[in-house]
Amino acid sequence: MKGIKLTAICTILILACMCIGEPATTTSPPAQFEITDLRIIPENPKVGDTLIVLIDVFNNGKSSESYTVLVIIGGTSQKKTVYLKGKSSKTVEFQKTLNIEGYMEIRAGNFTKIIYVMPLKTPASTYSPTPSPTTPAPTSSTKTWHYVALFSGNGDGTTSEFFIKGHQWKVEYKFSSTSVYCSFHGFVYVYKGVCIGDWDCVGHCKGKIDLANGNKNYYLKVETEDWGNWELVVYDYY
């Protein structure tokens, strides 16, 4: 009788082990990368300019992985590999010196831009008639906006130092957050000096701040209430 009971108990234990099986394993969803924007600086380039191509990449998955960004500029391909955490984005910068006048196609992901590279202006004649006393001499400005630097990140941060040549410059900013109530606060500092300007916005926002007093080194500081993604582009006017 005892032998029958022992056999029954062993059978029950074996069946229980078979039912339990191996513990289930969980894995994070794989990374899902997509290119969300393509921008160029300057928008109306000419021969001799350095074309800046900015590509925004977003990881829509939850896993952190590397991704190789491919851009084709005028038939020439360039690649850069970036590392992105889940649900985060990054701006990747490419450059190309423009040597030929004419139309040029730029492609990355599902985005395509066609630009026209303008020729260099022919130097004007050195001869100009003397204006009459009652007619003011015509004047023309050769100043234009020049790209200086691009900074991007997540959460709080401080940029590296950069130099402003002209007496007028600006910072264009863009911010995106998982919360529409998250604030994005930026500060402009003279290098090893005082704060000369700031901006503040909430949620998904973009804008610019105009500044003066160049011929100095500056840096920018960012403070956010959430782990939001931000981008700062600096331009100098001279």
Q: What structural class do the secondary elements suggest?
A: mainly beta
Task: Give the terminus-to-terminus CA distance.
Answer: 103 Å
Unreliable stretches covering 5 or more consecutive residues: none
Rg over C-alpha atoms, rounded to the nearest angstrom: 29 Å
Name given to the CATH architecture of the largest domain: Sandwich
Tally of distinct domains = 2
Overall average pLDDT? 82
| Strand/helix succession | HEEEEEEEEEEEEEEEE
Name the shape in a single word.
Answer: flat
Tell me the strand percentage band: over 45%
Structure characterization notes:
It contains 1 helix and 16 strands. It has 238 residues and is mainly beta. The strands form 4 sheets. Strands 9, 10, 12, 13 and 15 form a 5-stranded antiparallel beta sheet that branches.
Keywords:
1 helix, mainly beta, four-stranded antiparallel sheet, Jelly Rolls, Immunoglobulin-like, 238 residues
List strands and helices in order, with pairings.
Blueprint: H1 2-20, E1 33-41, E2 50-59, E3 65-73, E4 76-84, E5 88-97, E6 102-108, E7 111-117, E8 145-154, E9 157-158, E10 162-164, E11 168-176, E12 183-190, E13 195-202, E14 205-212, E15 216-224, E16 229-237
Antiparallel strand pairs: 1-2, 2-5, 3-4, 3-6, 6-7, 8-16, 9-15, 10-15, 11-14, 11-16, 12-13, 12-15
